[in-house]
Input
Amino acid sequence: MKLENMYQEIILDHYKRPHGKGLAEQFDSEVHHVNPTCGDEITLRVSRGEDGNFVVSYDSLGCSISQASASIMFDQINQHDFDSGAAAVDHLVSMLQRSVEPDEDILGDGIALAGVAQYPARVKCALLAWMAWKDAAIQAGAESLSGTKISSDSNKEQN
Amino acid sequence: MATLDVAAIKADFPIFKRTVRNDQRLVYLDSGATSQKPFQVLDAERNFYENHNAAVHRGAHLLAEEATDAFEHARANIAGFIGAQPEEIVFTKNATEAINLISYSFLNATLKSMRGAELPKGAERFVLAEGDEILVSEMEHHANLVPWQELCEKTGAVLRWIGLTEEGRLDLSDTGLFNPRTKIVAVTHQSNLLGTVNDVAAIVKLAKSCGALVFLDACQSVPHMPVDVVSLGVDFIAWSGHKMLGPLGIGCLWGKSEVLSAMPPFISGGSMIEVVSMERTTFAVPPKRFEAGVPMAAQAVGMSAAVDYLNAIGMDQVAAHEHMLTQAALAGLSDIPGLRVIGPESSVDRGSAISFVLEGLHPHDVGQVLDESGIAVRVGQHCAKPACLRFGVQATTRATFYIYNDLEDVDALVAGIYSAKKFFGV
Output
């Protein structure tokens, strides 16, 4: 069954026992992203520390892929700065949309989401939490290391 | 009980010649979203393009004449299918556009009236004042909700809605919802999410007692059961071609002649005019008033072929076949542990759209496992989020049946759900 390519054990583990789920009381920005076709939802908060790193918290509802992906997102980019987190988001997008060979150092368990690329309808489920993080970080005033302000619209495009 | 020769019907649908994932047969249970097309429909459309293609209602040449004849014949044939007169049928892009046509007639009548502009005779019914009411129900497809919300926001009218009972039926106990301020009651004939077939006679009676117009969303009824607009007693219905074996890109609005005549135009441009000068324009009578631009003649011809196809089977037979499948599916599903049907659990006053949720399993994941077995269902909110909320579900899995489905498909669905449960260990 090809299904196991997408639903690897590690994905199902994250789905059943998600990491980091639950909203923090304190935050600098909050976003609510939805996937209206299937009803996946995530509320994600970030607070930006003095070191420029973002503390992430979230609450979400949805399918196994969206839930597992949110859990992995937490593992991979919580307490990261914008450039590092955004690079991981971009890497995930490359893996899902262009089948680029994933780097485990960047995506961690997220490499197990590679099978999702074979099911285009599910790509959005896998991206939901990560795009929410990017949006929230931008709203919290993230600037890239080069100092350029990132436009919120460019993130919307990819959604 | 009368049963259809499903094997013979399937042979008419080219799509069933292909296989899906892992070379399996296609079990298509998503006709509520769009139906498959028989070769008779495809051939009719192709024949139009190959032999008669021209812009209808224009040109002095033979092809223009033939194309116009084909288009107007299609209109008459489609009108006959629902017991209507040809001039009461307006072709639109889809059913959504047909509903917007009505809502924009209200808006345009209201705006023009404020400026003292000329309106068709009888247009007062479409002029809204602050505090007028529009009544919908909680089970509406977004297409029969959002246009009315928009209209209210622009005019100051108030949107009210009929709630739902636990069983998924309209709760008509609050008759105060129907009052002298109610200008239009817009409800579905059959819910695309719940499968509920609504009691149109009761709604019409309440609406008429307060002088309101009645619009019926017939997207899930015209393809699946005999529909006669005269005996329904409503003022408008809308439905689409693609859910009844016809092509994509065409929908219909039916309206009573005197009601359509009272409506100002929606989309304006060529074809819908009478006399145009640089200063002003007078408009054609319906249906042309509502058909600006070169119309979708080939799709109309295809939709007419779909009507012929369904007529040859007989809509009573279609309804009886679906009823049999619905009963079997409800019985099979109700045995599955942890499965909850969202909508009526009995097959009484119910169509074949069956939505369900499974404990511990998200619909998207259910749909994925079913797809792996070649079973196509729809998952998500089905453009009916308020009804999902009403029943406390984030999303559902929905199976819908049509003339090319049989009991084997019902068995495949039930077996597929058991595999999904097994795969996810719930």
